[in-house]
Every structure is written in structure tokens, then in C-alpha cells.
Design goal:
The protein is α/β, with parallel strands linked by helices. The strands form two sheets. It has a four-stranded mixed sheet with strand order 1-4-3-2, with helices on one face. It has a four-stranded mixed sheet with strand order 5-8-7-6, with helices on one face. Strand 7 and strand 8 form a beta hairpin. Helix content is 21%, strand content 30%.
Length: 141
């Protein structure tokens, strides 16, 4: 019996202090195009391929009572349980751009044992963002 149950990964939602500022920051620092910013500034989306990266406020009555409150790290020595990762053909240029637009450098790009060049920054909400090369380059069309 064939199953019609084939989910697709639709969204990653990032809880932030200020949706409009985060959308603008990701556009400038990482070169990601903005899909939309809700008029209320309580929802923003970035064009990121097949899966959408969405931003919503850290605290909102629609979800806090249902799923609990978002807990942010208490210091720079802690990090949240999510890491946002972007792949670029030129990791050094992408890392430099991110830092020039307000990202905080965590570690400079370096080659990893698995063959990927990776650097880390923090965004304006302290979320760790990995800037890496393609492990398997995308096919050219």
C-alpha cells in the first residue's frame, strides 16, 4: 500500500527580540533575500531555498502558554540548541561581510577534518551562525 504521507520540511522559526531588525540584519550580513515582513513586525521570512527561515518574537501570547517560554543563553559561554548554517562558495568573503554588517566573530574560517571550510559568528540576538563551504557543491545548471 503506497503512502501519501510525505511531509516536507517547511520552516525553521527563529525567536528574536526584534523581527524587523533581524530580517534586515540577515539580509545585509548574509545576503539572504527577504520574502516578506508582516505589517505587525511579528513575522518575517527569508528566501533560503526550499525551506523558509522565519523570525517571530521571543515572547508572544499565541505560543508561550501552549509550548512554553523561549529561554535564551545567559552568557556568551552558552548557546541555544539551534545553529543557523549557510553555505557559500567563498567562505572568507561571506565571513567578512557578516562581521562588517554587525555579526560578532566567534571563530575565523578554517578547514575542518571532513573537508569543509567553516567559520562561526553570532547574530544580533546571540544565535550562532555557521558560515561554511559546500560539503558537496550544488550542481551547475
Amino acid at each position: 500500500m503506497a503512502s501519501s504521507f510525505r511531509p516536507s520540511f517547511a520552516y525553521t522559526v527563529v525567536y528574536v527580540k526584534d523581527v524587523a531588525k533581524s530580517v534586515d540584519f540577515y539580509h545585509k550580513a548574509f545576503g539572504i533575500n527577504v520574502r516578506r515582513l508582516d505589517e505587525s513586525h511579528r513575522w518575517g521570512e527569508l528566501e533560503s531555498g526550499q525551506t523558509t527561515i522565519a523570525f517571530t518574537p521571543v515572547h508572544q501570547h499565541e505560543t508561550d502558554d501552549l509550548t512554553g517560554h523561549v529561554k535564551n543563553p545567559r552568557s556568551a559561554h552558552e548557546r541555544g540548541p539551534v545553529e543557523v548554517c549557510f553555505a557559500y562558495p567563498d567562505v572568507d568573503a561571506a565571513f567578512k561581510r557578516a562581521v562588517e554588517h554587525g555579526a560578532v566573530a566567534v571563530s575565523e574560517p578554517e578547514m575542518k577534518e571532513w573537508g569543509q571550510k567553516v567559520g562561526y559568528v553570532r547574530d544580533i540576538d546571540g544565535i550562532v551562525v555557521r558560515i561554511g563551504s559546500y560539503v558537496n557543491p550544488p550542481p551547475h545548471h
